[in-house]
Amino acid sequence: MMGNFLSLAVDSSIAGLKLAEAVHEGGFGLNLNILETNLINLLIVIGVVFYFGRKFLGKILTERRSDIETAIADAEKRRKEAASALALQQQKLAQAQAEADRIRAAAEVNAKAAGEAILAQAVLDIQRLKETAAQETNTEQERIIAELRQRVAALAIQKVEADLPSLLNDSLQQQLVDRSIAGLGGR
After folding, report:
1. Can you give the pTM of this predicted structure?
2. Contact of 13 with 37, CB cutoff 8 Å
3. Could you give the CA distance from residue 130 to residue 124 in angstroms, rounded to a whole number?
4. What is the pLDDT of residue 27?
């Protein structure tokens, strides 16, 4: 409805200006006749628009202002929430970094202790292997010595058996038998 009034006011003003141009055909002039220029109609239309439009425009502007204030308040609230969330996440990040540093330090200590334990176990294993090797060497040496003694004894017996018949004559044999019987206590 207000658009119609405004349109009428503009149309009547344009018509008044065209009429004034037509009157002064030689150029542009100002028509001061109130009735010809529809100045009264124009003032009535502007008054109606101002009277009815003020409430309407005031209401629209008040709503717009309220919407803008609400949007600003919401934006400020979201900014504060985001800042709070950022601070919380930064705190969590700092805690996570501290935990990671603690875990890294503990891992280094554990790795060092494990390395030392492995090294100590390796030293013990080497010592045990040396002892086992020495024991096996001694056992093998004793076995070889015992085997050599048996062979030497067997060879000595073979040599004595081979040389005995040539060394023993009848009288020597009789003396040996008599001594053996005397050693047994039979005499």
Report:
1. 0.39
2. yes
3. 10
4. 60
